């Protein structure tokens, strides 16, 4: 009986191909939207994780302010001093590199080319801790670092924007009105976590940035590299204790800075992305619901329009439940077919978009299965009312209808 | 001797209730034997359509009895009546009522589908039925590609493909011209004569009724006259 009902339903769908197509369009769009959102969101989460773990597990980031959370920033918290970096390096032997960082966005000019980029003032430890290697030139000399000479090391993106194809070692670029000699070039690292371009940077001695760009002696953060990955937890405790002491934080008071290892950074960022994914997925789910209402709408119209057909079927000897089943199956076949089409489209679209955004692509079997089952369930849910209406028709009335 | 195919006893049907009630049938007595060819005539509002709906088990009487092959139809549930229609009845409508955009073959297969016949049996019997109504070669045509007469032939093939005991035809020639009507009546007559299918046909056209061997005339919800042709050979 089920098989026959399926055959009857499929024949009915085939008789109205255009309308059937329009009916499932809502489901197709809804399902694809949900899957694309979730797939890209998962890809972004994974990309962040990969990126951050590729930094190595022995990296620690120290920032002023409290926990890094959406809606909270480090504003208002006391910044660090250069002497803090010296103290960390001098007193904690487990640390390989301690790079103080003061950064600011500034416009770099060379000839007629200008490019707005992130200028990081730091020390040579920054290259060690961040895993940067030089493509050409050299890093800062001790004298340059100490005196705050106007020298800089360019990221690959900045070099490309300002100099095109040439190697610019020895050239002078202008930053915020002062000239700055290019002494080195960083090897390209590519896109970082959250999709930002890591190579879009200019690195200068921290004193130079403090004096000429930020105009204060504040240090925004420390990038710390620990010698042994196994000592990270210990190093975090040591850094915390030392900084509390230097910042005169009494016992019982909360830290006014944070010490984050790569895993925590990854988790925080992933949490934010998951939240975004969830929100976008919810919006997409609403469109799926609208698609379901579309199915109900069309099925109700279809029942009205096919009243005589239903009357004929009843006269021929179709049982009430067979007519019910037919219309229910029609709705479910339509909606689950829409689901399948949506899944195929979404997979293709996610693949294309992931390539475009440089995110890893993977098919999430769970979300695919859920989307399919959900679309079928929508068919049942929104097919039930029209199907019942069809099944309850009085054959005599139905046959008389024009 | 087997019981009569159809017995109507003091059949009454009232629509509405109270002062608005309309008595469509006011005590109809009628017996149809197996193999008869009956024309039901009468002016509109005479109750002939109501009687046909009850005969077709599409409607239930308000009073009296309808006994089909010894089974009291009045006491059957909606589903049981559907199964009775499926098993024993065939319907031919004035408006053909074929499924649009559906091939003749699939239209004829429809009742077999509800009977749960296998695919092979469905196709074989549907082809045979189409052949019997003179439409072999038109299996893949859809109703819009067929003339009115051909559509009615498909409808007749659909009605008889299940080898029903009774063929109920409601104005089968109402939408057809005289020549085509003639052909359809020849077809119904041959089905009645050669296959022994009882035919009960509603018509208001005396020329069409003349094909039947018995004419029952309804007036005001009662059987006014019931005339059998003497010349019939059976």
Tertiary shape of chain B: globular
Largest beta sheet of chain B, briefly?
6 strands, mixed
Spell the H/E element sequence of chain B.
Answer: EEEHEEHEHHHEHEHEE
Structural class by sheet pairing and helices of chain A? alpha+beta
Instruction: Kindly report the oligomeric state of this protein.
Output: heterodimer
Q: CATH superfamily assignment of chain B?
A: P-loop containing nucleotide triphosphate hydrolases
Largest sheet of chain A: 6 strands, mixed, barrel
Rg of chain B computed from alpha carbons, rounded to a whole number of angstroms: 18 Å
Question: Number of DSSP helices of chain A?
Answer: 13
Unreliable parts of chain A: none
Structure description:
The complex is a heterodimer of chains A (402) and B (234). In chain A, strands 2-3-8-5-7-6 form a six-stranded mixed β-barrel. In chain A, helix 2 (17-54) runs antiparallel to helix 12 (365-391) and helix 9 (262-305) packs antiparallel against helix 11. Chain A has two domains: 2-50 and 270-400, no CATH class; 79-255, no CATH class. Chain A is built from 13 helices and ten strands. Chain A is elongated. Chain A is an alpha+beta fold and 402 residues long. With 234 residues, chain B is an alpha/beta fold. Chain B has one domain: Rossmann fold, CATH 3.40.50. In chain B, 34% of the residues lie in helices and 26% in strands. Chain B has a six-stranded mixed beta sheet, with helices on both faces. In chain B, strand 9 (214-219) and strand 10 (222-228) form a beta hairpin. The longest helix of chain B has 18 residues, at 178-195. Chain B is globular and about 55 Å long. The model of chain B has no long low-confidence stretch (mean pLDDT 92). Classes of the chains: A alpha+beta (402), B alpha/beta (234). The A-B interface holds A 1, 4, 7-8, 11, 15-16, 308-309, 311-322, 395-396, 399 and B 53, 56, 58-59, 78-79, 82-87, 89, 91, 93, 95, 97, 99-102, 106, 110-111, 113-116, 158.
